[in-house]
Amino acid sequence: MNDKDLAKIRYNKKSLRAFAMQITRNYVDNAIQLLEIGAIDQFLANYVAENVQWIITGSSVLAGVYTSRIEFINTAISRLKSSLDGGIQWRVNNVIMDGSFAVLEMTSKAVSKNGEPYNNQYVWILEFDGKMFHKVRVYFDDILVDKIIK
Description:
Elements: H1 3-21, H2 25-36, H3 40-47, E1 48-56, E2 64-66, H4 69-82, E3 89-98, E4 101-109, E5 121-128, E6 133-140, H5 142-148
Parallel strand pairs: 1-6
Antiparallel strand pairs: 1-2, 3-4, 4-5, 5-6
């Protein structure tokens, strides 16, 4: 076997690995459906890996790196939920997919416990590991978050 043949084999292994890691539109649409009906708990359980690295950017009280689904739920989600009067109504406005990545541009509507609107804009960058989302980066209006979380 010559160098050219070895290069083809290496390329094919890389291509197969990349293909296996690609996310499908159907997978993303099913995840989005749960978000849009307000089923965040089901979304997290069905689409987010237990050992997720969930990164909330910025400087809000929720900002930081969460290294498990349970930590994220018990810290960030619980703080946000306890500050709202009811759930969040999500709307996914745009989806961009590339290989193992899905980018969701979203808006949300909710009301805080003190009656103020919590209407935020988000970008979630989700990385797929072949089974579930294992890394998520979130960008949103952190001043608005701090305003409702006491």
